[in-house]
Amino acid sequence: MKQINSIITIILIKLKILAQRPIVILLCLILPVLLNLLAGATIDRNNAMILEGAYVDEADNKTSAKLIDLLDQAVVDWYEMSREEAERALQLGQVDGVFIIPEDFGRIDERNLKDIFSVKFLIKEENIASGLLMENFLVSVVVLYVEAQQQLVLLNMPEALNYSEEEILSLLRENVEAAKEGGAGLHFEFYGDPGRDGEERVIAIPDYSIEVLFLSVFSLIGSLMLADVDTRRRILSVAGGPGKDYIATICTLMISGLVQLLTMNGILRLLMPEMFRPEGYFLIMILLLLMMIAFGQCIALIPLENRVMPASIILFVSITLGGSLIKLPDFWYAGAGQYIPHGWVMGKLLGLPSLISPVAMLIIILAILLTAYYLQVNRQALN
Q1: Which of 6, 45, 134, 146 sits a CA distance of 20 to 30 A from 371?
Q2: What end-to-end distance do the CA atoms of the chain give, in Å?
Q3: What percentage of the chain carries pLDDT values higher than 70?
């Protein structure tokens, strides 16, 4: 119990040290919020390698369900959203386009068939991705349009009087399946190299990369601030001091980092209720925080007067090559980029595959922390 109380006391001391620089805390909270608000109107997707679309199903009927079933069979990733979420995702560049399926979609009445199958298509700007998305959606709608057209023709035939509407539709579906099995279908020809990287590649920053950047900077600054020579000397002079100090430092940086992360996300959630966060966002951000803490403990091995420059350069290189400053191609994150700390984080947030699992990354981080502790203790013993 005494050991725990002494560690808690050291943590409180270290938190007070961090609180002595309120301007740093405020900047790391205010700047990412402001940049995220700005990013909401300026972000764009970087390529057409992965097509992602959203649809708003205001009809919620059998015809719209058929349409959605057809969409799910395509190579495009389709997401159902509310209108507000879809518009927000479009502005953030998280989807290439949004289709709004109106309430009267597919209801066969006295209107023209073209009006029955009309939908609204929202895009941020015209590019290859939005064009491909529209064509994919249109192919699915055309299938429904042709089916409805055939239904009307059959229902208006004199012979149809002897059959119910359900029987006619059942016969139509059977004939369609027979035609498909007989080889009837659409033929597509693709020109160009399918394996070639997407064109129209631009530089863009996903909104969560801003949080990755500032959480990294805040963690590094915190590590440097806690490397106060006089305070550490007093703590290390007591029995069990090195171990207690090391645990307290890690706990302090975790607490301060989590407070920053939760506060930042809480403010953004209030200002932007439709804000998008990838699956597993907080888990990956916590691993990033642990990465930066491990990095800070490695930097602590460098003499105090020489720490700032190498720490800043290494962090800048990792952030840049990891895609937190500029949006890099997807193949970079899936390839060499996954072996860079920030590249691994950004790749996971983008939902790209990686050879290093979160559990494996946690084991690597713990190994680095233990190694850094061993080296710090040996260096202090030599001194």
Answers
A1: 6
A2: 31
A3: 72
